[in-house]
Amino acid sequence: MVEILLATYNGGLYLEEQLNSLLDQTYSDIRILVRDDGSTDRTAEIVKHYEQSHSGKVVLLRDGTGCGGPAQNFLRLVSHATAPYIMFADQDDYWFPEKVEKTLQKMKELEQDQGGETPVLVFSDYRPVDEHLEELEFHHKNSQIAAFHLELNRLLVQNYVTGGTIMANRSLYKKLGQYDPAMEMHDWWAALYASAAGILYHLPEELMLYRQHGNNCVGAVDVKSFRYRIHKFLDKRTKLSQQRYLAQAECFYQRYSVELGEEEKRILEGFMEIWSGKHGKFGRMYRLLKGRYLKSDLVRVLGQLWYV
């Protein structure tokens, strides 16, 4: 069985379309676990209707507590998961019918090769679309997923794994643990663990439509446009981002260092050393470059060096 974890919050506008796409999967042994985080629109009503009309396939979790964000909501869902495999689903996307089947096939191939106890995360590509599911104009080479860097040092400063594309086996998802404010997002945290302690595999096939609209928490954008570059450079949060990455790395190290290999610990320790207070500007730049804690393109790397 595959459990699809669907975190919702005021998603009534697109939720039925997404639920229909999940229920229309060619792989039928699925259960959709839904957790709503206090929606004030029709979201809970929609989910209850699907729960009644698809008994056993759609289950609404009722724990009576609020989370306040998608990462907390998804990790709360993970704590209720029991299946051999889970997948994350965003409330506003649209899955192609073969998404579960094709991802699971690759997952089982990797498990057979690496052993069933190995933590494995498989993620696929997506097609960015607008609110009407029409393909966006900008080219994929200008998106954040144009090139994937799945090594731990690269993942410490940039996430390449979009939550709605993920499948994780039980050996991985049971290690994700409780939410911590230092976590950037649930998908980033899962990718870090897979890279550091298991297998992180990219399946190069578009298996869903990634809907972009005004209420997205995270989205696909043209990261190479002049407008985007200027906005990011002037945004005060850009300057603070490296401190957030450090906080996440420290949290990750504290939680998992005892089970990591020596190389992975060295990478994490080298990253944390950059901001130890022992080094000046040029010392931090040198260690950033030497450890290859770098983002995906030259302009972004220059931004890192400017703000380090």
How would you summarize this macromolecular structure in one to three sentences?
The chain contains twelve helices and eight strands.
Explain the overall architecture.
- This protein is an alpha/beta fold and 308 residues long.
- Strands 3-2-1-4-7-6-8-5 form an 8-stranded mixed beta sheet, with helices on both faces.
- It has helices spanning 15-23, 43-53, 70-80, 99-114, 152-155, 170-173, 186-197, 226-234, 236-256, 262-273, 281-290, 298-307; strands spanning 2-8, 30-36, 58-60, 85-90, 94-95, 120-129, 166-169, 199-211.
- It is built from 12 helices and 8 strands.
- The protein folds into 2 domains: 2-211, Spore Coat Polysaccharide Biosynthesis Protein SpsA, Chain A (Alpha-Beta Complex), CATH 3.90.550; 226-307, no CATH class.
- Helix 9 (236-256) runs antiparallel to helix 10.
- The chain starts with a strand and ends with a helix.
- The longest helix has 21 residues, at 236-256.
